[in-house]
Every structure is written in structure tokens, then in C-alpha cells.
Design brief:
Metallo-beta-lactamase, Chain A, alpha/beta, 6-stranded mixed β-sheet, globular, 8-stranded mixed β-sheet
């Protein structure tokens, strides 16, 4: 069954992406399936993969935590995969081609081979999108906020070059970690809460601005799973470097809205799987940041 849409929502180096965005003129304003030990990971994993762990949340729902991030394992990037009868939905693609390949290989082991493929990007930051080419080149339709259409269309390879430069990598190291990154404008754009119906399975894509204006969260009602993107951080403070008190208040309002959902598992943008209580911790952190500006 094809997609049906019903419309109704770290760090110093990555913070510099906002400067690039403004200068470009684009914007005016749990079961763990695999968890190799540290020595095994060091020997087996390519530099741009990180130390991923696969978690089966439900029969057809998987989360991956610990994908590569330059700040280390504590800030590991998360992603997700939801299987419908004849469709597969990827949620985010990691910061490297190696991360994208890991996600694709995980899905490929369980797919028939003729499913419709979709990739939902929770926001435009490099650590969530640089692996997208792997799934896109397999035929996936990309779903993202409207802002990403201009962002990817105008930035092209400059975005990758920017990250390599700001990380202080030479070209060889950039290739080794990131791989041959290609960015593709979304096939479907979203600005408001949207329900995707795939083979009778509902997937709610929620506009949750705050971390960035183009932030999306993905809720799967059947498994009570929230793929929060960078709306929620686990174990570390939310990254507030892309806004000020006005954006943080908006962020808090979206987190309060997410709390109303029936949630069994939160897949944060960074960190480990967690409970709904982590949303309250993020709210407290944001309120503390606001208090420091008074």
C-alpha cells in the first residue's frame, strides 16, 4: 500500500552549523540484539560507525543507539526502523555513510525485498542526515520538514566540507569517517503534525520546534514508541546552542505536548533508550537555562 498523508510537529562544532545556515540566506530567523564488547567494537567497526546497539522494541519496531558522533559514545546518535506489511520506514540516518549502511543492512536481513521504503529525517543536522544516501539510493522516499528542501538543495557538498573543516580533519580523515556523503531534498515535506498510514499502520510525524525550527518527532502508537530526535536528550543536557529563551520556551511547550502521548519507550536523539520521565528532565534543564538569562 502506498503512502497516505493526513495533515493535522553537540555541541560546539555542530553549533557552528547555525552560522552557516544564516550566512547562506536560507533562513531569516528493550531487548539488545547486538552489543559487542569494547575490544571487539574497536577491531570490527569502521571509524565512522561508532558502537551501535540494536534494540527490538516491538515485533516490527527497532531502535539503534550509539551510532557515530565526534563527541564520543556518551553522545551517540540514535535512529529507528519500523516495518509495516509492505513498507519500511527509517527514522534518521546517522552522521556517516557507515551509519547508513549499518541501518540498511539491519533492515535488509528482515525484508522481503519489494517493500516501499521511506526515510524520515527529524532535522537537518549532519549527525542525523549524512548517512541518508544509502537508503535513498535503494529507492526510499525522503520525508522531512519543508526547510530541508531549501537547505539540502542550496548547500550540497558545502555542508560536508564545513563539518570536515570545523572538526579539523584533513580530506583523508573526512573521507574515512564520513564517507561519500550525498544529500537529497525531501520527496515529501511536512510543516504540521502529519499521520502517515502505511499498510493500515499509523505513524505520527509531529512538528516539535525548539532545538531547531525544523525539528520533527515520530510517534508509533501501536508500540507506544516515541522517536524524539533532538527534542529529547538522554543523560546529557539538551543542546540549546541554536536559540535563546524564546526558542527554549517553545521547546518546553512541545515537550509538554509530547508528555500527553501514551509512551512506553523514548528513543532520544542522543543517549540510551529511556522512559517518559526523561522528558521532564529535559524540561527542567531548559527552564534552568531560561532562568540564567534573567
Amino acid at each position: 500500500m502506498r503512502l497516505k498523508i493526513r495533515c493535522g510537529l553537540v555541541l560546539t562544532v555542530l553549533a557552528l552549523e547555525l552560522i552557516l545556515l544564516c550566512s547562506s540566506g536560507i533562513l531569516a530567523e528493550d531487548d539488545t540484539i547486538s552489543s559487542p564488547g569494547p575490544m571487539e567494537e574497536q577491531m570490527a567497526n569502521p571509524p565512522g560507525l561508532g558502537n551501535p546497539e540494536v534494540h527490538q522494541i516491538a515485533v516490527n519496531v527497532y531502535a539503534v543507539t550509539g551510532l557515530y558522533h565526534p563527541a564520543g559514545d556518551d553522545v551517540g546518535v540514535s535512529a529507528g526502523i519500523i516495518f509495516a506489511d509492505n513498507s519500511i520506514v527509517f527514522i534518521d540516518a546517522g552522521m556517516s555513510v557507515a551509519s547508513g549502511e549499518f541501518l540498511w543492512q539491519l533492515a535488509e536481513e528482515m525484508m522481503a525485498g519489494d517493500e516501499d521504503l521511506y526515510l524520515i529525517l527529524t532535522h537537518r543536522h549532519s549527525d542525523h542526515v549524512f548517512g541518508m544516501r544509502v537508503v535513498k539510493e535503494q529507492g526510499a522516499k525522503v520525508i522531512a520538514h519543508r526547510i530541508l528542501k531549501d537547505w539540502f538543495g542550496q548547500m550540497g557538498d558545502r555542508y560536508r566540507q564545513f563539518i570536515v573543516s570545523k572538526m579539523g580533519w584533513d580530506a583523508e580523515r573526512g573521507d574515512e569517517i564520513l564517507g561519500e556523503v550525498l544529500l537529497f531534498p525531501p520527496d515529501h515535506v511536512i510543516e504540521h503534525d502529519t499521520v502517515l498510514t502505511l499498510d493500515g499502520e499509523e505513524i505520527h510525524v509531529l512538528a516539535t520546534p525548539g532545538h531547531l525550527y525544523d525539528e520533527l518527532s515520530v510517534y508509533h502508537p501501536n508500540s507506544k514508541t516515541l522517536f524524539a530526535g533532538d527534542a529529547v536528550y538522554q543523560g546529557i543536557p539538551p543542546h540549546t546552542g541554536f536559540g535563546g529563551p524564546e526558542e527554549w520556551r517553545l521547546w518546553i511547550s512541545q515537550l509538554e505536548r509530547l508528555k500527553q502521548l501514551e509512551i512506553g519507550t523514548v528513543v532520544p536523539g542522543h543517549g540510551k533508550l529511556c522512559s517518559k520521565n526523561e522528558i521532564d528532565r529535559n524540561i527542567a534543564c531548559l527552564k534552568d537555562e531560561i532562568s540564567k538569562t534573567k
